[in-house]
Amino acid sequence: MSLSPVEGVALAEIESGGPEVPERKDVVGRSPGRLAWIRLRRDRTAMVSGGMLLFFMLLALAAPLIEMLYGIGPKEQFQSLLDGFGMPLGYSGGVSGDHWFGLEPGLGRDIFIRLIYGLRTSLFIAFAAAVITATLGVVLGTLAGYLGGWLDAVINWITDLTLAMPFLVIALALTPTLVLRFYGEREAVSPAFGVAVLIGVFAIFGWTSTARLVRGQVIALREREFVEAARASGAGLGHMVFRQLLPNIWAPILVSFSLAVPQFITSEAALSFIGVGLSDETPSFGRMIYRSLDYLQTDPAYVFFPGITIFALVFAFNLFGDALRDALDPKSSR
Amino acid sequence: MTRFLVKRLFSAVLTLFAVSVLTFLMFFALPRDPVTGMCPKNCNPERLERVRDELGLNDPLITQYAGYMKGIVTGRDLGSAQGGHCDAPCLGWSYVTNEAVSDTIARVLPVTLSIVIPAAVLWLLLGVGLGMVSALRRGTWLDRLAIGFSLTGASLQLYFVGAVLLLVFVYNLRLLPVPSYTSILDNPVKWASGLVLAWVSLAFLFSAIYARLSRAQMLETLSEDFVRTARAKGLAKPKVYGRHALRAAITPVVTIAGLDVGGALGGTVITETTFGIQGLGRTAVDAVRAGDLPTIMATVLIAAVFVVLANVLVDLLYAAIDPRVRLR
Amino acid sequence: MRPRVVAAAGGAIALVVALGACSKNTGEGTTVDTGRTQTGVIATDPKDSQGPAAEVAGASKGGTFTIIRETPISHLDPQRTYSFAGLMASPLFARYLTTWKDDGKGGLVLVGDLAETPGSDVNKDCKVWEFKIKDGVKFEDGSPITSKEIAYGIARSFDPDLTGGPTYIQEWLADTPQFDTKWDFKKNKGSLPPGLTTPDEKTLRFEFSKPRCDLPFAVSLPTTAPLPPAKDTGVNLDNKPFSSGPYKIADNQVGVKLTLDRNPNWDAKTDPVRHQYPDQFVWTFGPTPDAASNRVIADNGPDQSALAFNTVPASLVAKVAGDAALKSRTILSPTPSANQLVINNQRVKDLKIRQALNYAIDREGLIKAMGGPTVAAPLTTLMPPSTIGYKAYDAYPAGASGNLDKVKELLGGQTPELVLGVSDGATEQIQGTQLKANLERAGFKITLRNIPDDAKLDEIKKKDNPWDLYIGNWAADWPSGASILPVLYDGRTIKPEGNSNQSYFNDPAINAEMDRILAMSPAEQGPEWAKLDERIMKEYAPVVPLFVDVAYNVHGSKAGGVFISSVFGYPAFVNAYVKQ
Predict the structure, then answer these.
(1) Min distance C447 CA to chain A CA atoms (Å)
(2) B166 to chain A nearest CA, in Å?
(3) In terms of CA atoms, which chain A residue is nearest residue B148?
(4) Which of A120, B135, B151, C176 is the least crowded, having the fewest Cβ atoms under 10 Å away?
(5) Domain B103-325 in CATH: superfamily?
(6) How many domains in chain A?
(7) Percentages (nearest 5) of helix, strand, coil residues in chain B
(8) Where are its TM segments located (chain A) (predicted)?
(9) Between chains, do C450 and A189 touch, taking CB under 8 Å as contact?
(10) How far apart are CA A55 and CA C187, in angstroms?
């Protein structure tokens, strides 16, 4: 019940790369980052999946613009285009020139524009959560790994504790409670707050893998000659961390980040599935998919459009993450 | 070795203690009052207050917590509203399902075990197998197929795969019975046929991840010096790959598998919900919804025990598989 | 290479999902007739209360009847039974003082169950009631049921350990809502609560300090199920009640499966309503409403004689209603469960605003959003059509989707700002979204405030809750106006929390009128409640009536005899059988 796949796998996959990332046999004298970039550019998969991601992000960013051009808002209802049972009239769930992906059964909202806005919400949540967890993980992991001793033991124990707390159960218990505590009883809970709570829940549970990864890397680096040398020459903690350690482990962190984003996207959907998450007013992938699944038999188009979009998005992220790892770590190349 | 074990166990107990305290506090922050749920209409506040008193919900938090913990260790007397005396390890009485929580756990734990263990065997075999094959046949169509499979699996969600499988195999083709749990002791065939969809969908998603992981590990190991040395010494391919490389490559897989299985044993909420099977995970979620404190505590603690145990076991296994690892 | 995998995987999913997506929906055949009229009487002829019940046409003995439901039945202990599933399951293993003879089409007759008649009002003032117990009624172990065991059943309902059940009889006997302190069950085992006596083994006598004309109805609830004191296992009775009905508990895996076997000691000749057709009843719990409906539609193996207890979910209505072959396997009926947009009258004091809300409502859109006419039927009255004496009227004709001109006229240019509290559960989220859009179109400004699903009911039952509007639901315990209007609109009952009067409506004239009607004999009350209903709406408009729930259940091809209870609106099993 943990944020399972983020945990563990990303960690082990990345660890296999090890701290040898910066290849030292550089003849031409290009920086490791530059080399990785060249390798990435040569990888067709990386380019295609990267392009897809860019496209999705543009769509998300341009949502209000698209709404203007499309002429339909995410809350507009078109119930006159539904039959008596609330099912969309016409072909394939009401697909038409006006409604490109058809209409939601029941409320009759436009699926296309809600998908665009849902993409925006979900990508924002996933990116924000990934950034926060990465930061938390790097800070805690570096501290634990570099300073060691009792601090290491404490951070390790907190990591174990976090892993032992059941994520879904806590999320289920925490989310409504937080809303009650933070909002007046007659105030509408702003969608931004719902989003923030979700990001917070992800942050609390998502940082452990990065922390473990970074800790392992730092411990390995700590004993290396160049670090010893820097320490011997009296470098302070800041210098050690920012100039000596982090520059040498940014590659695995980046990979773990790119693999964490899709996990948060699917986790948002998983939370909707057990009834936690955003309210109906905020369009999101999770809620759309969760609601649409029941219509698999009666309105397959309703399942198809959100389903294929989230699949394509997550798939593109996974492809890109893979390619990125290959580029950063030539040893494990295909 | 002994010192390591003692240290690990101490830390494990400390973790479980912290989990229990956090869960307890979390419960009292819930918006749900378990007692009002007991009268659907005509609620009388004074009467409800008496019920709260009798259930001990008005006692100070510390008293309630100590009572619960004491129950686990020595058993305790819960009063007539909660089924009287409750023997150790007493997990309390659920005033929502009206039974001893230990009975609930005894019923739902085998369900979760029956879902997770066969699924884990399946996903490990499938995942590691695929990973090995695609690493050894790197660059061939077999490798591509395996990568495609694993990336697809890693990008799909269980509720989606589950819903489609149910629709196709159960409702439309009617090849399989409706998912349900029968004890393996009563009827192994029914047990398997009722759970096979859950196994397959879990295995599909998880094996994808393991295939990616073990492929990467295997490639890594194959380029290691000791493998090249073994090959150069003239050892036969199967022997090198089977004994030396596999062994080194599988170590991280074991780590992840241990943690995954440990986590999954704490409840596979989504799987259980998708297939309509009442296991530990769904019981925990229902308990949170109903504000059923004793059941929340028991399910969360058991889940935590699995995770913590898995952690310790992984460390031990690690040492057993990879002689380079020394336990301190 | 990898992008090709994307295409292939996408294509595969597309194929699966697109199956059957190509037919055009023209919207034909989506109307459903849900009208029916309720008639209700109390049997005057003792013959009506005698068994055996008339045979069900086409019924045969044998087989296992399965009932699939998502959540377990909350209580099986009759004294604690109040949920609908419990009320529908209970008659299989428990008998009461009185019960409803129900033709499933709205025709109801209250008859004696364990009692020979539905009670006799000794002094014709509703204060003293006597019930004579039938001969030959037995428990599952063959021991006879006498007035003592029925009295003991009522006595144990005073036990504060045994929460959950209805509290009418207890409160009437003790003449206070604090009945459990007035008479302490645990300290008085062996004696009976005040006012309850058993002059002899065949007689049960109630004496009240106030007129309780609804007693014959109230004793049709499971509180009056008998229990021998020796068989009382306290809270554990909930998992294995002691049977007095045609079936007994054979096995109960709590929360998973409940198996009922025939009770050989039940005698059909004493029972006016129940049958004993199937060998076994099995309740299984777990599958979601979608899964349960899908199973039963698939009609495979044991599911052929199964019923999905949850109604067909909105997502599957189009499939079920659109399939002519399934028509014979569905039961459809409006229920007595009435839903209102409750207006908090303590906050919204302007009658014009309350009336404007009534004119503004778009019932057609709301029902569409919920899944159409098989899910809900529009309602313009306080009481549902299934109430005895019901008279239809529409005090604020809003048409199918709202009368915006009238709203404008009543609001006179102002834009009332109202807060609508909705639970964060799936159904109310949809209703909330729909209502907000609907009312804002009409010129209101609506703020949606989510309330955690589990806490919503508790919150709106608090007198000083902070919201102006919320969705309320009331399903009466018997189809009389007396169990609806005084409960929901008598302002004198308002207390700090736990209110059923959630509109917090309080008007002395209306309160007095209720007292007047309550003192009448139950047979005369019907039309009077209907008149009061219309008067409250016309003069005060304390709520916006929205819809009644519609029961739409699907069963397997071999399941027969199930009908929707005219009292509770859920599938009843007294006539159920398995086609051989």
Answers:
(1) 6
(2) 11
(3) A319
(4) C176
(5) MetI-like (1.10.3720.10)
(6) 1
(7) 75, 0, 25
(8) 46-66, 123-149, 161-183, 189-207, 301-324
(9) yes
(10) 75
